[in-house]
């Protein structure tokens, strides 16, 4: 009886280890396969953020000009 329980516990442990190894292998393969696409997407997002920040600066400068123009009157 104790031997059967030990055998079940060993199977569970082996299954968990195999699943972890399979997950790690899949992760590494996917990362290698899709790394260029991930990098390209990251660059696109970075360029978009830069464009948005530049537009914010332009809007702020226009707002400041409008506010200063209304104060002069």
Description of the molecule:
With 73 residues, the protein is mainly α. The protein has a domain at 35-72. The chain is 97% helix and 0% strand. The longest helix is centred in the middle third of the chain and has 71 residues, at 2-72. The mean pLDDT is 88.
Give me a quick take on this structure.
The chain is mostly helical. It has 1 helix and no strands.
SSE arrangement:
Elements: H1 2-72
Helix content: over 70%
Largest sheet: none
Q: So how many helices?
A: 1
Tally of extended strands? 0
Between the first and last Cα atoms, what is the distance in angstroms?
Answer: 95 Å
Q: What is the ordering of alpha helices and beta strands?
A: H
Class inferred from helices and paired strands: mainly alpha
Proportion in β-strands: under 5%
Given as residue ranges, the uncertain stretches (5+ residues, pLDDT < 50) are: none
Radius of gyration: 29 Å
- Characterize the overall form: rod-shaped
Mean pLDDT: 88
Q: Can you tag this structure with a few keywords?
A:
73 residues, mainly alpha, 1 helix
């Amino acid at each position: 009886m104790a031997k059967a329980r030990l055998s079940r516990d060993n199977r569970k442990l082996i299954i968990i280890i195999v699943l972890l190894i399979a997950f790690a292998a899949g992760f590494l393969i996917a990362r290698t396969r899709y790394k260029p696409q991930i990098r390209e997407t990251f660059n696109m997002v970075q360029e978009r953020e830069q464009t948005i920040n530049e537009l914010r600066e332009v809007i702020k400068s226009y707002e400041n000009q409008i506010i200063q123009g209304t104060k002069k009157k």
